[in-house]
Amino acid sequence: MAIKTKSRQKKFDTRIDFTPMVDMNMLLITFFMLCTTMIKSQTLQIALPTNEKVEKEQQNKVKQSEAVTIIIDGKLDDKGLSDPNEGMLFYYDGMPETANLAQGESNMKQIEFGAKTGGAYPAIREILQERNKEVVLKIADLKKDWKEMKFSKNEEVNDSIYQEMAKKIRNDSTLKRPVVIIKATPNASYAHVVSVLDEMQINNISRYQIDRINEVDSAMMIMVQAKNLKK
Amino acid sequence: MGKVKIKKKETRIDMTAMSDVTVLLLTFFMLTSTFLQKEPVTVITPPSVSEEKVPDANLLSVLVSPEGKVYLEVLGSKDSTMKSETVRADLLKNMVAEYKRTHPSANLAFTNKEIETFSKLNAFGVPITKMKEWLNLEPDQRDKALESGPGIPINMNEDPNNPNEFQMWVRAAYNSVNPELQETMVKGRGIAIKADQTTPYSVVNVVMDNLQTMKMNKFTLMTALKTEED
């Protein structure tokens, strides 16, 4: 009996102290927070032409008036890496004009891109937008309707109708659309190539391809660069 | 007077509620977390406006270091029917068959234990002739050997009948037991190139050209999200 009364006195402290438990939980949370990857990386889908030699007659010749060739050039540092902040773009419309190349005269133009132009690529965007004007204007109209939810009150349905119509405009052959040929020199950085591919998406260009650089292009680049340096 | 003294007893804060919250948070993080996979090289992918997510199943990713070393990673399907382990074990067997076709005299065979070790590895990238030796290393030495090693042998090769080792691996992955992987590879969602933004184009071009030679013209490039107002 005497023992029982003693144990009753101890009973006042039945609550467990949770502080160590909280400490431990916090530690675990910190661990999981640091080790998880919340943001999944994105992907950019591309399709390249086949490597097989295609018969000349079978080749789809790009219309000269529609073709724009963009050449990406970069700079290698002493480690052999290409700086994504520095780069040059060269572009020309249609066929290369090399008649007066020795004097540095050609239809190739040089623009700078990278960190110096504010990280964005406004120069090339303007050029592409100008050439894809008809599509860009139509898409802009469409976007206005999409923002006002004109297609459907349901947001998802609205989105899908918009995407469908935008795709139709991008592939509308009655509009004047450019064909962009992207070429990169071995020194160009991968980031530049991706950002130029990005510009295709931003400017709603449906027809573009990645091609290999040829001698005419490199010769033109050297001459244009030399001429611009003289200035 | 007495009343005031009684109130003084409660100076401790009740931690039960706090504990509840932390356990809840912990459960959330444990369930949603996917751990960062160990990769032989750290790459910072270039930014892009594309919003498509990287598929987390049925994927063959090609990791390209800025120096041009190539590593491969294979993921199986999401459900347990075709686990990554099964797909990887099958990949190694296919690779051996693929290699023997062009090198009939090669003495290449893996024990079941070696295949099991291989199936548990996330990334790999050693020449196939060195593979046996590499699989028998201790785990930490294996990582080091992967980092300092040459990666998967690759060169500019436009002859599909005489493939290099990288092309053999891709072909082996294509012949996988997992039909879904084959399907995604055809559609271009099954092959992803992960390269650092400072990589010179010449390096990435070699990988792209190899895939082109194998008539796998559609593939994806892994990028990081960039927001841009339009």
Summarize the structure.
The complex is a heterodimer of chains A (231) and B (230). Chain A is an alpha/beta fold.
Coarse morphology of chain B: globular
Give the terminus-to-terminus CA distance of chain A: 109 Å
Helical segment tally of chain B?
Answer: 9
- Total number of strands of chain B: 7
Level of helix content of chain A?
A: 40-55%
Q: What is the count of helical runs of chain A? A: 7
Tell me what portion of residues of chain A adopts beta-strand conformation.
15-25%
What does this structure look like?
By secondary structure, chain A is of the alpha/beta class. In chain A, 42% of the residues lie in helices and 19% in strands. Among the domains of chain A are: 67-121 and 178-230, no CATH class; 133-176. Chain A has seven helices and six strands. Chain A has a five-stranded mixed beta sheet with strand order 4-3-2-5-6. With 230 residues, chain B is an alpha/beta fold. Chain B has one domain. Helices cover 42% and strands 13% of the residues of chain B. Chain B has nine helices and seven strands, in the order ααββββααβααααβαβ. The interface between A and B is large, with 54 and 65 residues. Strand 1 (42-47) of chain A pairs antiparallel with strand 2 of chain B, so a sheet runs across the interface.
